Amino acid sequence: MKQPTSTHFIVTSAIAAMLIILTGCGNMDPNRAETAQAENDEPGVPVETLLVEQGNIRASFNASAILEAEESTDVVPRVNGIIEEIFVEEGDFVSKGQVLAKLESSRYALAVSQIEAELRNVRQELERNQQLAASQLVSADAVSRLQSQLDSLTARLELAKIDLDETTVRAPISGHISRRYARTGRLIQAWQPESMFHIVDSSLLRATVHLPEHALTYIRPGLPADLQLQALPGEQITATVTRVSPVIDSGSGTFRTVLSIENDDFKLRAGMFARIQVHYAERSQVVRIPQDALIRIDNQSHVFVVSENEAKRVEVVTGLQDGNWFEVVAGLERGDELIITGQNNLRDGAKVEAITQ
């Protein structure tokens, strides 16, 4: 009789092992097997994720304001007269001291000449009386009266010269003529309420904003600010905080803050509407996340991250806010896979299918 070969023995052993496995599978609970299979086949919740990165963040208070000229003035007449000539028009730039208009001056010139003639006569009379007084031929009182008359005429002459000079209307400041009220041939009265011109110096503008009470701790002179103007879309204009009111308005709960804007090229105009961001804090290379990823419940903040295809709830501590970005002080690290869409209905440990941005 032939002895069984080693190959025959191996095949027989393999068949016996398969029978044992099949027998064991036949004894498994069918419900338990279906549950395990369902768990393995359950699809993950689709979510959108973002790898956490570091970046710069700047905290700001938002406000709006109308731009105003830091310096402007009305030009009013200082003497009575008829306007003979006007040398400027609206929109013209004028320098301080530049002639704007001329008034009729002949009457004022004649007044100066008349007083000068009287002054010469009195001065000559005074000199003769002083010589006679030295010889005691006239009294000292006569000399004193003439001296007083001379002083009075000298003062009148100075006033008359001032009035004559005021018939030439000059610009008190440098700037642009924003309004011209004067008309040639019109009679004007000294110090009348209606001005002849309005001049605006647009080289330095200001914006006055009212910030909430809790901002008073952070706002101080010297802080930078950015302006966005409807008239100049896409252009970023910078400003600086120059004055901060120490008083809170009890009615509105706000305080007044004034910003200065350099405008040497006169690109900006008084009256423009501006949206303003006053920056009060800035940090660089911090962990930051988009606002949409943050979930706030009862003054607590948390996010979801992906770990081994599961959603993991993580409590976080936030810091500065910069628009739609939040600084994360604790809870996250650079490189964490943060869920930014679909996290509101998740539970801790839920299976997810991540779609990374």
From TrEMBL:
Stretches assigned to the CzcB-like barrel-sandwich hybrid domain: 73-190
Q: Which residue numbers delimit the YknX-like C-terminal permuted SH3-like domain? A: 287-353
Query: Key word Coiled coil present in the record?
Result: yes
Q: Which SUPFAM superfamilies match?
A: HlyD-like secretion proteins (SSF111369)
Signal peptide region? none
User: Ranges for the CusB-like beta-barrel domain?
Assistant: 208-279
> Which residues lie in coiled coils?
112-170
Q: Name one GO molecular function term.
A: efflux transmembrane transporter activity
Please list every transmembrane segment annotated in the UniProt record, as residue ranges: none
- Which of UniProt's keywords are assigned here? Coiled coil
| A GO cellular component entry from the record | efflux pump complex
Q: Name the Pfam families for this protein.
A: Beta-barrel_RND_2, BSH_CzcB, YknX_C
Task: Quote the PANTHER family the UniProt record gives.
Answer: HLYD FAMILY SECRETION PROTEIN (PTHR30469:SF38), MULTIDRUG RESISTANCE PROTEIN MDTA (PTHR30469)
Q: Name the family.
A: Belongs to the membrane fusion protein (MFP) (TC 8.A.1) family.
Q: What is this protein called?
A: Efflux RND transporter periplasmic adaptor subunit
Tell me the organism: Aliidiomarina taiwanensis
